[in-house]
Design goal:
Blueprint lengths: L4 H15 L10 H12 L4 E3 L5 E5 L5 E5 L2 E2 L9 E2 L2 H13 L3 E3 L4 H11 L6 H13 L11 H22 L16 H12 L3 H14 L2 H8 L5 H8 L1 H10 L3 H25 L7 H5 L1
Antiparallel strand pairs: 1-6, 2-3, 3-4, 3-5
Helix pairs in contact: 1-6, 1-11, 2-12, 4-8, 5-7, 5-8, 6-9, 8-9, 8-12, 9-10, 10-12
């Protein structure tokens, strides 16, 4: 299994170079792509900041609330914004406190996930959410392989097979991979194992996990990341393996690629953190807050 993103990028480049005679252009500096990300983001919804202080308080039923000055935060659906534990409240409050003169809602992923859990705009229960998540197993990024070119076939085998072997061993299931357009036939026993695993999460954590799955388009990579077998950076890069290969081969529009990668990492990291925090107990030890 890969141990560094640099190594994986190098292997992608080496694989391409060993089969093709294309010049690979280096990626731009991080500062450059962040600058372009900011420019691109101007078209996204923003609002002038209307508060000075952010605080949290514990309300009825032990739920935690977010206060903007003396006003209680509400969801887009008009509900009182409450979260089930202090750790999650601190994460959300930190997002609001980090905003400058303009509220950039598209950067506030934790708040967005909380709003989704509270308002539940599609009015789904856990069973429906699990069914939706499991649909990605049938079209999982890791399971669909190409027949050609040989360089990409080799890259997919080298980078995806170890993850597939890990999850099959970790959950004692059979998944497999296929280059057939219909993909591999996932056994019902495997689906049931994953269904039970997903059902072990509470509604809030499941909201975050489903979000991660939709970002990576992979149940396998999402489980690998939440189980800490993969880092966020590794999971994102593996989810884009074919795209990264094509970029190394043909080149790309640098700022657009970097922005997409940066945004996907941010969304995926927020989703993974949300899963962890939504599974925490109700309070944070004061010693932690003082450190």
């Amino acid at each position: 299994m890969l141990r560094s993103l640099v190594a994986l990028h190098c292997r992608i480049g080496q694989t391409v170079l060993s089969h093709q005679r294309h010049h690979v252009q280096p990626h731009q500096n991080l500062i450059h792509h962040l600058h372009n990300a900011r420019c691109y983001g101007m078209a996204t919804t923003e609002r002038r900041k209307f508060y000075e202080d952010v605080s949290i308080s514990q309300g009825e039923g032990g739920m935690y609330e977010i206060n903007l000055d003396r006003r209680k935060l509400k969801t887009p659906g008009g509900k009182l914004f409450t979260v089930p534990n202090e750790a999650l409240a601190i994460a959300v409050a930190t997002e609001w406190d980090a905003q400058k003169d303009t509220l950039k809602f598209y950067t506030m992923h934790m708040s967005t996930l909380c709003n989704t859990a509270l308002d539940n705009p599609t009015q789904r229960d856990k069973e429906q959410m699990i069914a939706s998540a499991l649909k990605y197993l049938e079209t999982d990024t890791i399971c669909y392989r190409v027949d050609e070119p040989p360089a990409l076939v080799e890259l997919q085998n080298n980078e995806w097979d170890p993850v597939l072997e890990w999850i099959e061993k970790r959950y004692n299931v059979v998944i497999g991979s296929s280059s057939n357009i219909l993909g591999p036939e996932i056994p019902e026993e495997t689906k049931e194992t994953f269904r039970q695993h997903l059902n072990s999460y509470n509604f809030w954590a499941l909201t975050g996990l489903e979000y991660v799955i939709t970002q990576l388009k992979s149940v396998i990579l999402s489980f690998g990341m939440v189980d800490r077998y993969l880092t966020v950076e590794q999971a994102v890069l593996l989810s884009r393996l074919e795209e990264e290969y094509q970029i190394q081969r043909w080149g790309n529009v640098e700022w657009a690629h970097d922005y997409d990668m940066y945004e996907l990492r941010a969304r995926t990291a927020a989703g993974a953190l949300f899963v962890q925090l939504a599974s925490e107990s109700s309070t944070v030890k004061r010693k932690i807050l003082q450190d």
